[in-house]
């Protein structure tokens, strides 16, 4: 099943996700439906709030062709299997800085330059309930930080500079207005 993606102005996006306890069929179905929704929207990642849920779940699928370092042209994370389904993810370590373009399915047509850590270590439970840790870099590290932000109720707009907010004010206002209908 595909969900409709919630957009800026929908109050669910500001909610802090609730940790998943028991991994039952409804959680597994939610993860599958989130993957379907992400693929059909051509997103690299999706968090529960973006489909109107508040369970601490996010999904990521970064195509190999995009997992390439700008400078070395080598794969950044060749050993990481896609898709990644993370329950209760927490970023434990952040290292370095990367500056790059970032978009969000909940902010259609808005792309802004955002500073993020270059490498992160994220701890989570996988869908079988096992504890997992991933150390990732590059665009994948950016995507992990973006999705974990969502689960904390932190949005792209909250990462924008005052100038970026100003230059996207029209689009932001329209999204908010569309959510009031
Ligand atoms: Zn997003």
Descriptive keywords:
single chain; 181 residues; alpha+beta; Peptide Deformylase; five-stranded antiparallel β-sheet; two-stranded antiparallel ribbon; 5 helices; 7 strands; binds zinc ion
Describe what this molecule looks like in 3D.
By secondary structure, this protein is of the alpha+beta class. It has one domain (11-180): Peptide Deformylase, CATH 3.90.45. Helices cover 29% and strands 24% of the residues. It contains five helices and seven strands. The chain has helices at residues 25-40, 138-151, 156-159, 162-167, 169-180; strands at residues 45-47, 57-60, 84-95, 98-102, 112-116, 119-125, 131-137. It is globular and about 40 Å long. The protein starts with 24 loop residues before the first helix and ends with a helix. Bound molecules: zinc ion. The site of zinc ion has 5 residues, from α2. Zinc ion is lined by residues 104-106, 146, 150.
């Amino acid at each position: 099943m595909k969900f409709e993606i919630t957009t800026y102005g929908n109050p669910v996006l500001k909610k802090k996700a609730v940790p998943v306890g028991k991994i039952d069929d409804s959680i597994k179905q939610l993860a599958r439906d989130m993957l379907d929704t992400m693929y059909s929207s051509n997103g690299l990642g999706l968090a529960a709030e973006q489909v109107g849920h508040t369970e601490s779940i996010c999904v990521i699928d970064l195509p190999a062709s995009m997992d390439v370092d700008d400078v070395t042209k080598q794969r950044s994370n060749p050993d990481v299997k896609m898709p990644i389904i993370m329950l209760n993810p927490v970023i434990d370590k952040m290292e370095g800085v990367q500056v790059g373009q970032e978009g969000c399915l909940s902010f259609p047509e808005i792309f802004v330059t955002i500073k993020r850590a270059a490498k992160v270590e994220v701890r989570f439970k996988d869908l079988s309930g096992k504890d997992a840790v991933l150390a990732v870099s590059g665009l994948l590290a950016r995507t992990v930080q973006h999705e974990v932000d969502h689960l904390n109720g932190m949005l792209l707009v909250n990462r924008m500079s005052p100038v970026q907010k100003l230059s996207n004010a029209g689009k932001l206002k329209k999204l908010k207005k569309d959510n009031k209908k």
